[in-house]
Amino acid sequence: RGIFEKREGISANFLDRMEQLNKTRKRIEKGSTLVYGEETRETHLAESLKISELVPKEIRFPALIHDVGKTGPLSADVETSKVVMALFAAMHKLEVDRSLLKELVKIIYPQAEDRERALILLKDIGVEVDKPLKDFYQMHVEWGRQIMEAEPALTGQEKYFALNHHRILRGLEVSALNQDGSIYQPRELDDYHATYLEICDYYQACISRRDNTHSKTIIELRKVFLPLVESSRQRMEMLGNIIDEIDKKGQSKPRKTR
After folding, report:
1. What is d(CA 197, CA 220) in angstroms, rounded to the nearest whole number?
2. Among candidate residues 241, 216, 213, the one with its CA nearest the CA of residue 48
3. pLDDT at 198 over 90
4. Can you tell me whether residue 40 is helix, strand or coil?
5. What is the dihedral of CA 12, 17, 23, 25, to 10 degrees?
6. Average pLDDT over the chain, rounded to an integer
7. Among residues 87, 129, 201, 248, which one has the fewest Cβ atoms lying within 10 Å of its Cβ?
8. CA distance 93 to 137
9. Residue 45 pLDDT > 70
10. Where does the pLDDT of residue 7 fall: very low under 50, low under 70, confident under 90, or very high at 90 and above?
């Protein structure tokens, strides 16, 4: 929370959201999933580079806030936000592109009373549980945009980097507003930095939630990302160089044991 409090003008609502999100993220990394105040143990890999250790210093702050949309829409209260975060924390249990949201709700809320309450809260924020899980997953980008645009202390460039962490993999390109309300126009190096953040985000998701090793995750990064840009030799080289840099950082980090 301290790093966010140092930014003058950041709202209490934003600080609270980031604090709750980081608590949930730590449980994921430790192998626990928060479900209505209880923890269920999972098996996860202990070795993991934090996203702040992966990205260049120019985008560390956007990297820290890029998932704020996983706390739910701007209108969400604390109870609703906990339900949304519980769903995102447990999403690794199912295939995102092949499952329905209601399947995940049933898994993490086995008790009928808790499940019904969660369904009511989700309905109140416009979430349809009969839709594909991937539709719910992608909502966090729009929710993040709502939350960030309500924060005048955030710059257009910071929001641009934070919001565009699914451009390549899911085609979700989002415009960001400058502090004067105009649309932020990406600069020369912005594509590189936004791409770097997206690849680091995928790296962290793989190594912390899929019981992967660093070397296996690097192989997966190449397998997943490079074919998506193979029509552009320049972008192929850029992505390849970014993955090489992440590989070097991962190899230099001391390994933890289970």
Report:
1. 16
2. 213
3. yes
4. strand
5. -140
6. 87
7. 248
8. 13
9. no
10. confident
Tokens 């019904």, residue? 116
For the chain, the residue count is 258
**What pLDDT shows up at residue 258?**
41
- Residue 217 corresponds to which tokens in the numbers above? 């995750």
DSSP string, 104-119: HHHHH--SHHHHHHHH
- Cα separation of 20 and 199, whole Å? 24
For residue 182, the 8-state DSSP code is S
For residues 140 and 137, give the distance between their C-alpha atoms in angstroms, rounded to a whole number: 6
Give the pTM.
Answer: 0.87
| pLDDT for res 34 | 40
Say whether 100 sits in a helix, a strand or coil: strand
DSSP 123-177: HHTT--TTSBHHHHHHHHHHHHHHHHHT-TTS-HHHHHHHH-TBHHHH-B----B
